[in-house]
Amino acid sequence: MNDMKAEVQESGFEQRYELDASPEKVWRAISIAEFREKWLPSDALANLQSLSETPGKEIRYKLRDDTPPHLESTVTFTIAPNGSGGTTLRIVHELTGATFERLAKTVANGNSPTIMLAA
Fold first, then answer.
1. pLDDT of 32-76, one tens digit each?
2. Nearest Cα to Cα of residue 45 among 68, 64, 27
3. Which tens digits make up the pLDDT trace of 9-31?
4. Cβ contact 48:33 at 8 Å
5. Quick check: 58 and 77 in contact, CB under 8 A?
6. Residue 95, by phi and psi: left (phi above 0), alpha (psi -120 to 50) or beta?
7. Assign residue 22 a region: left if phi > 0, alpha if psi is -120 to 50, beta otherwise?
8. Following DSSP, what letter does each residue of 25-72 receive, concatenated?
9. What residues contact residue 118 under an 8 Å CB cut-off, 6+ apart?
10. How many CB atoms are located within 10 Å of the residue 27 CB?
11. Contact partners, residue 9, CB within 8 Å, separation at least 6
């Protein structure tokens, strides 16, 4: 069974998956570059190395959009065994602090200077 639940948060979103695969197999898929590349290409990462890692439990990466304004975000993958012998995979995707503040200011009306066009 592969169920998914999603929740939108103020600075990003959270997803939870119930996977049939063992925690060890899921950990390999999210932590070993050759396996991760199949679903999260290296060019989407701001840095090929993880930001932090608790082996077998949690890993964090910094992502960068490939289109302007090239927003950066942090994605945290947390795994835990579930009651059916599979894995609960929790993914939290957040815009990073400064990026989120900059985006919030640019999308609000009236926050940018008035631009006058020549007649």
1. 999 999 988 888 888 889 999 999 999 999 988 877 777 888 999
2. 64
3. 556 789 999 999 999 999 999 99
4. yes
5. yes
6. beta
7. beta
8. HHHHHHHSHHHHTTTS-GGGBSSSS-SEEETTTEEEEEEE-SSTT--E
9. none
10. 21
11. 94
Tokens of 28: 């390999």
- Strands, sheet with 87-95, edge to edge from the N-terminal-most edge strand: 3-9, 12-19, 87-95, 72-81, 58-64, 52-54
Q: With bands split at pLDDT 50, 70 and 90, how would you rate the model's confidence at 117?
A: very low
Instruction: Identify how many contiguous H helices and E strands the chain contains and give both numbers.
Output: 3, 6
CB 103, CB 71: distance < 8 Å: yes
